Every structure is written in C-alpha cells, then in structure tokens.
Amino acid sequence: MAIYSKEEAKQIMEKALSFSTADACEVNLSGSESGNIRYARNTVSTAGHRSNQTLVVQSNFGKKSGTATIDEFDDESLKKVVKRAEELAKLSPENPEFMAPLGPQRYDESITYVDKTAKITPEYRAEVANSSIEPAAAKDVTAAGFFNDSTGFSAMMNSSGLFAYNQATDASFTVTMRSNDGTGSGWVTRDFNDVSKFNAVEASTVAIDKAVMSKEAKAIEPGKYTVILEPAASVGLLGNMAFAFNARTADEGRSFMSKEGGGTKMGEKIVDERVNIWSDPLNPEVPTGTWNGSGQPLKKTSWIENGVVKNLAYGRYWAEKKGVDPVPFPNGFIMQGGDASLDDLIKGTKKGILVTRLWYIRTVDPQTLLYTGLTRDGTFYIENGKIKHPVKNFRFNESPIIMLNNLETLGKQVRIDGNLVPYMKIRDFTFTSLSDAV
Amino acid sequence: MKRRDFIQYTGLGAGALMMPSLLLGNDIPAEALLNPGMDVAIKKKMADVALNTAKSLGATYADARIGRYLNQYVFTREDKVQNVVNTESFGIGIRVIVKGTWGFASTNSVTEDGIKKATDQAVAIAKANSKFQKEEVKLAPVKSHGEVSWKTPIKKDFKDVPVSEKVDLLLSANAAALENGANYVNSGLFMVNEQKYFASTDGSYIDQDVHRIWPTFTVTAIDKGTGKFKSRQAMSAPMGMGYEYMDGLASEKLKGPEGLNLYRGSYDIIEDATIAAKQAKARLTAKSVEAGKYDLVLEPNHLGLTIHESVGHPLELDRVLGYEANYAGTSFATLDKWKTKNFKYGSDIVNLVADKTQVGSLGAVGYDDEGVQTKKWDLVRNGVLTNYQAIRDQVHMIDQNESHGCCYSQSWNDVQFQRMPNVSLEPGKEKYSIDDMIKDVEKGIYIAGRGSYSIDQQRYNFQFGGTVFFEIKNGKIVGMLDDVAYQSNTQEFWNSCAKICDKDDYRMFGSFFDGKGQPSQVSAVSHGSSTTRFNGVNVINTGRKI
C-alpha cells in the first residue's frame, strides 16, 4: 500500500518528528503506484508495475544539514532514519546558503487527483495497446507505443509547524506509427490527470493517418520558412525558455535574461506583444500541486504579459539576498492561444510547412537561447491554403525568443506534457539542413 | 527528480546527463559504503530460491540478479560545498521465460518469501503477456561458467578516500579557476560501485564488483560590459577506474595545441581548471567562425561523442529491428545494407570495434547481465559494415548463434536489455602525431571536448559543437574560434575520414548517463580514438542576436 491518506501521512510524519533532537527537522513522505505497457512491431514487448514509498528526513544543526531516506515506517525504522539524518548533519560541511524551514502556510486545495485514473487495470492497458495495434495492422502500418499511468501522494511536515499534502493521478501515452514500406511515420502524444478524457483509438488514428500521409516525402531546400507548429512541436522550445526564467543566473550575468552592462531583462519586452505566458496550479485542464518541494505555496503567476517579462523565479536564498519575495518555479506553463483551428491556420497560409513535432532538441548557445533539433513524424508542405505533399525532415537552428518575435497567428490551445500550448504560425523559422530520416 | 531538476541542482548542465531518482537509492553515511554487503554464499542460496521457484512454476529459463549499488556524489560551486550524496540500493530482479514470453519482477525484500513472491509475479506477467506474443523468445546458447568472479582492476577504492579529501580537491580546482579569471565554477565528482551477483538456470553463478568515476566541472567567464558569457567544460573523461584517476600523473598527459593539456588514464583537475578559466575568458573575444567547408581535426574527447551518436546507436540491433521506434528511434543501418557485405559505412581506414573488455573503459565487465562472457568484435572493418550489437534473444535474427555479451540493466529493479558496448575507432597504423596532422591541413578547425549534440532518429543527419575550437591555416594554428558547429550525414562523414593519428594519441571519451528504453534506463559507455581528420565538412556559424 503505497498511497497514504492525509491523516495516515500526518501520523507517520508526526511520529518521525517526535524523534528529532536537531535544531530543525523536515520530513517528506511520498508514494506512488504506477503501471505501464510497451509495444513494438505490432506486439506487446514489456509490461510492468511499480510501487514505491519513501520518507525523506532532513535534519539541521545550524547551517549543517543531513538527509536520510527510508521505505519502512514502523517506530523503529522512523527512529533509525531520524538518527541517521542527524549523524549525517553533524558530519557535513556548513552550507552558507542554508535556509531554515518555513513556518505554517496556506495552500489552495488541488484538483490533481481523479479516481478513475487511480483505478486503471492491466486489462485497460492491454486494451490501449490493442487500440493502436489492430487499426495499424489494418492499414499496413506498424505501431510502437508506451502507456504509463500513476497515482501518487506527497506530503511534507517540519518542526516549524508546516504541513502540506497532495494526491495526483496521471496517464500518459505516446505512439509512433511507421508505414511498412518504411517511407512514412506518424506520432501522437496525450497526457491527462483524468483518463476518461483519453481516447486511445482517436489518438492512434491521428498517428496512423500521419504515417500514411507522410509516405514518400519530397525534398525541398532548407532555409527560412513560414511554419505552423503543432503544440507538440513548440512545447520543447517553449519549455526550455520557461525553464531559463531564473533570477539568480540572470543576476549573475550568465543567462539570456542578463543585460548588457549588468542587470536583467525584467520589465522589458522580449517577444511579440500577443505573447502571454503564465502558470496556474488550479487550471482545470492542466492542474498541478499547490505547493513545491520547499513548502512554498504555488499561485497563479504571470511570466510574460503582452510580450514583457513580468517575473523571474527566485529561490528562497536568492530572494533573501536580493531583498525580494521568493517566486517559486511552476510545475507547468500556460500560453494564451487564439480562436484559429489547425484547418484555419492551414487555409490562411500561402506557402509554409506544417510541423508535427521537433526532436532531439539541444542547446547550441545559452546566450541567445539558440537550439538545434529536427522535425519528425509528419512534416508537410502547404501551398495556397492546402497541404500539398509531405516533405523530408529538416534540421532547425532557432531561438524561441526569435520565434516568438516572428509570431504571425495564435491558434487553439492543447494540453501537452502538462502544459497548455497553442497552435502557432511563425514566419522565418530557420531550417539549416535536410535529413533522410523517416 | 526530473533530469532537468538534476542539471539545475548540480549547475553542471553536462551533455548526455540523465539521472533517474531511483538510481540514487537510499541515503547512507559515507562509512556505511564500506560495509561488505551480503556474503556470496548467501547470495547463491537466495538466487537458487528464485531459479527453483521459477522452474517449479513452469519457466523454461530464469535468471536472478542480486544487486547492491553504491553511489557517492560531491557537488560544489566556487568556494562552497553544495551537496554530498551517499546512497545504497539493494534488491533482486528475476527474469523468466514462460510460454516463450519474458516476465520480470523485482523486490528489495531479499528473503526466501520476498523472492518467491517476486518470482510468482514474474511468471504471472509472462503468462499474461504470452496471450499477445507473436514472436516467441529464442535464446542463443551460453555455456555454464560455474562459480566465477570479476572485478574492475582499480588501484584506489573511492570508498576508502575520505569525503573531505574529495571536497578539498574540488574546491582547489574551483579556486584555481577563479584565480585565473573565471567568474563562476561548478564542479562535481561522481563515483559508482555496482556489486552484482548473477545466477541463471544455465548453471552460472557470477559475482562482479564494478567501479566507475567521473570528475567534471563547468567554468564560466562573463564580460559585464557586453553582457556576453562563455563557458568551458572539463577535459576529463568518465572512466571505469578507481580514485587513482584523480592522481594527475604526468606520464598520462599529452600536450595539445595552444596550451591545451589532454588526459589519458590520469586526470589533473586543478591544472585543467586553470587552463579552462583562461580559455573561457579567451572565448569572450574569439573570432566568430566564417561558415563554409573545413577539414576538421577532431580530438578524441570530442570525437567520442560523434562515435557514440553516429556509430554506437545506429548499430544497436533493437533499434534496427524497430523495438525502440517510439523512443530513441530506428536506424539507417538496415539489415539489407548489412547483408550486401559491401555497405561502405566509412573510408577504407575506418575500423570500428565493439569491446566489453577494454581496461579502464566504462563498459568493461567480465560477464554481461545475462551471464555471457564479454568479448571484442568488429562493427566496421576497412570501412565496411560487418556486424551489430546483439544479445541472447536477438542474435538469431541476424543468423548468428553467439550473443555479443552486451546485455545490461541499470539496477536490480529494472529488466536487462541490449545496451551499447564500448565502441571505438582503431588508431592509424603509421606513426603520425597531432602536430603532423595539423601541419598537413590547409584550411581547417581543431575541435576538442564535448559540446552541443543532436542527431535524427535514424542517425543520418547530425550537428555537433565542441568545447574549444582553433582555426588552422596552412599547417598552423592561427587563433581561437567561436560559434562553431558542424553538420553532416553519418555515411558521408565517415567516408570523409582522411587520416587517423597513431596509438600514442589514443584516449577514451565516456558517457556516464546514456539513456534508452521506456521506462528509461541509463548506462555508462566509453569510446576510444586517436585524433582524426575529416575532409570538407560543412561548418555553420551559430552566433545570433536576440
């Protein structure tokens, strides 16, 4: 039994704290049950189930801290783990950046747990695989996919009176469909807290259609093109950008957020004024927990408003040093979209490229946030408002900052990897070479 | 912990870095790393419980892996220790074949009861999956080894070296970097000991003690006026060695161009941090490269990553067959190309070998994780594709009957599968040094160290950066370059291989956390080579304004 209720978790943690003799003690209790199925070559390859539970104890003497972990919660085990954390703390070097545990906090009630997801069975997972494999085989296509679901809880308590608890469920799915002649490939990804929103047949069909449509792609010259990026294509670049919203590296002068002559770009317009990015733990489409690993409450926070940098994330130590309030880093982001559907975006494009997905994205230059990577699993040429034919994959070298300055149109939002991201039409997206990969 | 969190946590941001939280295991005091762990006779008894239970439940094959995984990681920045992590993870993984289908389960309860339960579960999973099985598992034969053992030939066990000594060494390296013009420095020391016991129904009982180490840092220099910042990573390689790698022996050092020191089997972190600070600063004012075709002179600690991505991965048989299609991808090196026996992977001087026995390498073990004695074999000989990397249940698909011995699991908790062995480029046969090579280049770039790397899902098109770049004009290095990345196609690139330095220049590059599979698992692998020249490669300028 790896999932404890709020009351059960509280009891275990109170017990652990009662054994503490340190200046301060903080305990984190978490557990999860997860199941998965993997398939390839139109047959199931592996399936598994994993259950784990952990109690992490951090004890402090002054600025010295020690951490110990255990997965058994009887009194003897709790005593042992607290003692070990204290021994480790006494032996460890001082951390000048140590911050004392937070006192009691108020958290919003999260909406991350859905009972139906928690009750997924091995039979359900097998049916997901079957929903890909059967229609694929019927269309001369080969499916390779992975479905994973998990139910978990996390709780935190410390000697200053803080207590936090959350339960969450998650189901995620990806499938790659390859045409049996090896010339076409399609892919789809879905993720939900509530598995009743997931339709394996619908998702698999999208990938199969792309595999068939992308057969026998034609090569066109690399260069700057107008692109329609599906949310799965832009989420990687946007996520990397969001992750770089870090006040400390910006202040230290080693971030794209650092400014010539010192200082940061806070308050400056860095992208098109239609760009708005925020985080919101209570958004019903992409809910997250309402507190982070340091016990700080997570609230709706604006990061970019009308193209202007509104916030950078400040850890507790750096916030104190700079004399500002800490701004916790979010667990996901939301980018404002528009009304246009994918069809609308295609119809309004004279000449362009539709991109399903960008892959193997790596930093080229952190100074300009330049990334490279490749298109994959469905890249199509658009002419006069219609998809004309599939094109060979491209390598790109592009910065999300340049990309968001070249914004043409915002389309509808879609949940992707726990974020809400719109379809986007972008001009002058830089493709630097061709790839023969299918 | 997500990979990203880990990178932020350490501030290292090193490439190919993956760190699943489960690998960290439970935190323990440093002294507890010295505990001997379970006696080998008890391990045999426990493994037999799994094997006998599996057989009694109808398994036609079973193996058991009892693993104790000890890690020690030290992280610092500038004059501060950020964290010292000591962890231990212990348990057993049981794999069975029932009705021609694999089943796997694991438990950290290494008792008769716990093992019986896990074996039951592995058999139940195999039975359930057999309903969907369309390709029955066929295992290549393996001889029984009886009771054997193997140990990484280390001179100094990291567990015997006090943490304070490690912390002092990193802080001294940081201080050297700061004194020489660096604004920031993050350094880390990763040390791993895998104590693995393997037993199978084929009659092998194998006890292995595997060690790995990786010292690394990132030095950053800033020009506040222009707002520019540049970094330089360590020229170390992760190694299959003990703490003796940190001795900094002069005999294991090679002189590179422009004051660069290159390290073979011994690393001087303080000296490298000193040079790194100067080079990070120099990068701030280095000339931005003019895009075009150049002859590239690639240093082994750089070329290793190119070998990893463009040779190691495409020749993994599971990728070729489509088992990794939804994650890592497939491969351009298809079976029909291999069957022609004349597929030119590279030029005539290109000889690429797979080797699980190479001393000092990350991939070296005596036996793989399914009890196959390790060996060395050709992948590309005289430029022609000759073989793949395959394990017991795969070799029959390429009409072979002997496993290559490259099966691996990251822990007792995960099922073993095919992983990349060390894949290396053989040195040139005639006497030829780095200096000789530079003299012969008219218009070229010398690239050292790892940088940005990206390659497509079938391993055709790639783009690589590096740590430092020097321009070569008419046989001489004329200065530092920046904003360099090269783009090529795997087959075209290896066919442009024009010259390879001799064995005196041979060194290993390594990847400590190479990811593959769903759920993802990491493994560690080395790639050896000597400095090598590739003619007429397309170089792009990566400088941008935002």
Description of the molecule:
- The complex is a heterodimer of chains A (438) and B (546).
- Chain A is 23% helix and 37% strand.
- Chain A contains ten helices and 19 strands.
- In chain A, strands 7, 12, 13, 14, 15, 16, 17, 18 and 19 form a nine-stranded mixed β-sheet that branches.
- In chain A, a hairpin with a 2-residue loop joins strand 9 and strand 10.
- Chain B folds into two domains: 3-72 and 84-153 and 197-210, no CATH class; 292-541, no CATH class.
- Chain B has 546 residues and is an alpha+beta fold.
- The longest helix of chain B has 19 residues, at 112-130.
- In chain B, helix 3 (40-56) packs parallel to helix 4 (112-130) and helix 5 runs parallel beside helix 6 (269-283).
- Chain B is globular, with a radius of gyration of 24 Å.
- Chains A and B meet through strand 1, strand 2, strand 3, helix 2 and helix 4 of A and strand 1, strand 3, helix 4, strand 8 and strand 20 of B.
Uncertain residue segments of chain B? 1-23
Kindly report the average pLDDT value of chain B: 93
Q: Any idea what the radius of gyration of chain A is?
A: 24 Å
Using only C-alpha atoms, the radius of gyration of chain B works out to 24 Å
* Low-confidence region ranges of chain A: none
Mean pLDDT of chain A: 96
Strand residues, percent of chain B: 35-45%
Secondary structure: number of strands of chain A: 19
Helical fraction of chain A: 10-25%
Largest sheet of chain B: 10 strands, mixed
Biggest interface pair, counts: A-B, 80 and 71 residues
How many β-strand runs of chain B?
28
